[in-house]
Amino acid sequence: MSVRNRIRMRYKKRDIVVALSLAISMLALAMVLNMGGLGILPPRTLRSLARSIVINTYNPWNTTLTSYSLNAVSAIIWDYRGIDTIFETSVLMAAVTGVAIVLRESHKGRKPGGQGMSIIVKSSTKIVMLLTIIGSLALAVHGHLTPGGGFQAGSAIGATLSLVLVALSLQFIHRIGIDKDTLLKIRYTVLAMILAVALVPLISLVLGYSYAYILQNQVREGSYFSMPSKFFTTPLAGTVFVFNILETITVASAITYIVLTVATYEGKTEE
Amino acid sequence: MVLVEIVFNVTQVLEMVIFVYIASMVMFFVRILRGPTIFDRVIAVDALSCDLAVFMALIALYTGNPHIAFPMIFIALWAYVLDLYVSKYLEFRDIGE
Amino acid sequence: MLIPIVVVLVASTLSIILAYLTMVEKDLLIATIYIAFIGVLYTLIYYILMAPDVVLAYMPVSSILLPLMIVIVLKKTKRFEE
């Protein structure tokens, strides 16, 4: 009898019944939609839009309709819909600027100290940090051949640096040389470099070599300008490769800056 | 002497094993609802992450597509992160100390 | 074709039940553990639907950055609600 008194359920019966009925009604709605009960659904075979995307992203027989990258997702993000990615990068820049303005420190007196967690945690975190940085560099450099790309590698590095902030202490971060001002400077410099790479085809237009467009990757109809497209024998899409590497650095510094500001903010608290 | 020989395909064995993994996922879910202390729930999340890393390799073997199994590395590395946060909350005075 | 449908059905049902129980919970540290569990189930669904780029972009956010932000906010305010 005493065992039954100790293991008591922390939820009433009403909560579990409501949760189960919510799950069953969602599943029933999904099944009804799947069988076409609520209208016209897209067909299950390959649609014409998907077919044209697969044909146009790697097409070595027709050199005016291709970008030489085997990863279709990277080619769509950086080459065919490049202006959407520029707007998404500016959204992240607005978020970083908002955090920098709202969470300004009211006083600079910060007491030093801190030792971090125990020695087992520190050793395993150092191994994890090293392996993650190597894996992220592999993701960034091979972004046009395998699944991966710039944003994925950058967010992995940023997440690892915030894990180092928790396991080892804040003193370790300052001892490496990572400061909040340094991170902001790195981020804005690399953003300016991305804009410069996007405007490189205009040089060809100004010098009179050939007609060119902004964000142009390979040869198009009516213009002979093209970024490098092969690295001895492997395909290397020109702007996709350069944008992946630059995006890694800028996203990593943005995420580390946000976590560092939120964790070390000292303001007035109301009791 | 005649020995009985049972021949299985690789795909049939994998189909049987995947149902075992789905059953273990439901058991982790029961543990996260029922654990008396907070550390039992944290262990259920960690065990599901390690289980998912092996499951990714099995699906890559089943469909014959080796390029999709790359996230397996990262989820096996980051399975222990929730333990750090819970213990840092309960023991220390400040995040980043 | 049987295996993707069964895995997606089981993972979706478990995540909907947990999402309701997160709302009713009074101890907010346990609610963040539920959120991390839901994140791992979503990673499984994205992987079964054959989208490795989405998995690689979702994993650092849902397993490292989101619980960290909630734990920082809980440290500066209170743990039990009402």
Task: Report the count of strand segments of chain B.
Answer: 0
H-E string of chain B: HHHH
Q: Which structural class matches the secondary elements of chain C?
A: mainly alpha
Chain pair forming the biggest interface: B-C, 35 and 33 residues
Number of domains of chain B: 1
In angstroms, what is the radius of gyration of chain B? Answer: 19 Å
Helical coverage of chain B, percent range: over 70%
Number of domains as seen in the coordinates of chain C: 1
> Can you count the helices of chain B?
4
Structural class based on helices, strands and sheet pairing of chain B:
mainly alpha
Instruction: Give average pLDDT of chain C, whole number.
Output: 92
By DSSP, the count of extended strands of chain C is 0
What does this structure look like?
The complex is a heterotrimer of chains A (271), B (97) and C (82). Chain A contains eleven helices and two strands. Chain A is globular, with a radius of gyration of 26 Å. Chain A has 271 residues and is mostly helical. Chain B is an all-alpha fold. Chain B has one domain. Chain B has helices at 10-34, 38-63, 72-77, 81-91. The model of chain B has no long low-confidence stretch (mean pLDDT 89). Chain B is built from four helices and no strands. Chain B starts with 9 loop residues before the first helix and ends in a 6-residue tail after the last helix. In chain B, helix 1 runs antiparallel to helix 2. Chain C is mostly helical. Chain C starts with a helix and ends in a 6-residue tail after the last helix. Chains in contact: A-B, A-C, B-C. Chain B binds chain C through residues 15, 18, 22, 25-26, 29, 32-33, 38, 41-42, 44-45, 48-49, 52, 55-56, 59, 62, 67-68, 70-71, 74-75, 78, 81-82, 85-86, 88-89, 94-95, and chain C through 3, 6-7, 10-11, 14, 18, 21, 29-30, 33-34, 36-37, 40, 43-44, 47-48, 50, 52, 55-56, 59-60, 63-64, 67-68, 71-72, 74-75.
